[in-house]
Amino acid sequence: MDLQLAGRRVVVTGASKGIGYACAEAFAAEGCEVLLCARAPEAAAERLRAQYYQAPIQALPADLSRPEERARLHAAASGADILVNNAGAIPSGGIADITMERWVEAWQLKVFGYFHLTQLFLAEMRARRSGVIVNVIGMAGRAWKPGYIAGTAGNAALIAFTSAVGAEAQKDGVRVFGINPAVTRTDRMESQARLRAAHTLGDAGRWRETLTGLPFDRPIEPAEIAAMAVFGASPRAGYLAGTVIDIDGGGQFKG
After folding, report:
1. Which domains does the chain have, with CATH numbers?
2. Among 29, 199, 201, 212, which is least packed by CB within 10 angstroms?
3. Long-range pairs for 208-217 at CB < 8 Å and ≥24 separation?
4. How far apart are CA 6 and CA 104, in angstroms?
5. How far apart are CA 70 and CA 86, in angstroms?
6. What whole-number distance in Å separates Cα of residue 228 and Cα of residue 119?
7. Spatial separation of the C-alpha atoms in residues 52 and 48, rounded to whole Å
8. Residue 85 and residue 13: Cα distance in Å, rounded?
9. Above 90 in pLDDT, residue 131?
């Protein structure tokens, strides 16, 4: 299926690995011009250039927890057709485990980072009456997790934000939607599983034992989230707006 994306300018944050890298790769495969933004995106961009030499690939190192760095990204990528908000690393822990300083630090990147970048890119998209913003959020915003309290609260806020902005932006020709991945095979999945194993089993090395009972007996592959992001951002999904799509293998209904 031709997704009609060739030549579109795409910005992907948190693009050096995991879901962000998979999204950048999937858009490059469609012939898009892709800008990878992360703290150190150069190696990831070089890998994509070697594989997708026909697609212009750029890298912009930035710390998107800082407002001035978000503004710098926006200035460098002015006129982008698609923004994929994906950068974020909210730590695990319960209400007694996360200091307010760490909580604020984590939300500066993912929660306020998404808010701010959406505000920046949406303004010019509205002015030209075209554009798509994809927010990669997380199932913890639906299936609340006391042991991931900062992430649960942040994701829930981003789900509400995405739906509210998406409901309004469509009148100006702009689509905003979100994706909620459940457990996805990334470095972050392993690091969080190690923390759970240390807390519940007394041994971080037993982290694989904490990944039982997953739908289809496996985590989600990053490429599966990327495929949804690319299709949703394409003209083929032109009526998709305000929705946050749960990709959890039906796990939320297992009881």
Report:
1. 9-185+220-249 (3.40.50.720)
2. 212
3. 211/183, 213/254, 214/182, 214/183, 214/249, 214/251, 215/182, 215/248, 215/249, 215/250, 215/251, 215/254, 216/249
4. 39
5. 13
6. 23
7. 6
8. 6
9. yes
Q: Is-above-0.90 flag for pTM?
A: yes
Contact 59, 36 (CB under 8 A): yes
User: How far is 252 from 55, CA to CA, in rounded Å?
Assistant: 38
* Distances in whole angstroms, Cα of residue 13 to Cα of each of 23, 27, 28, 206: 10, 13, 15, 31
Q: How many angstroms from the chain centroid is the CA of residue 185?
A: 14
DSSP strand pairing (33-38 vs 9-13)? parallel
Residue 95, CA atoms < 13 Å, CB-side half-sphere: 4
Please compute Rg for the chain using Cα positions.
18
For the record, the structure tokens of 132 come out as 């798509």
Distance CA 14, CA 26 (A): 15
Whose structure tokens read 């460098």?
76
Q: How far apart are CA 80 and CA 245, in angstroms?
A: 23
Distances (CA, A) of 153 to 65, 87, 163: 18, 17, 16
SS3 58: strand
The first and second tokens of residue 244, run together, are 């946050």
- H/E stretch holding 199 reads helix 187-200
3-state secondary structure of 57: strand
Name the phi and psi angles at 152, rounded to 5. Answer: -60, -50
pLDDT digits (tens, 9 = 90+) for 224-246: 999 999 999 999 999 999 999 99
As a whole number of angstroms, the distance between CA 8 and CA 170 comes to: 19
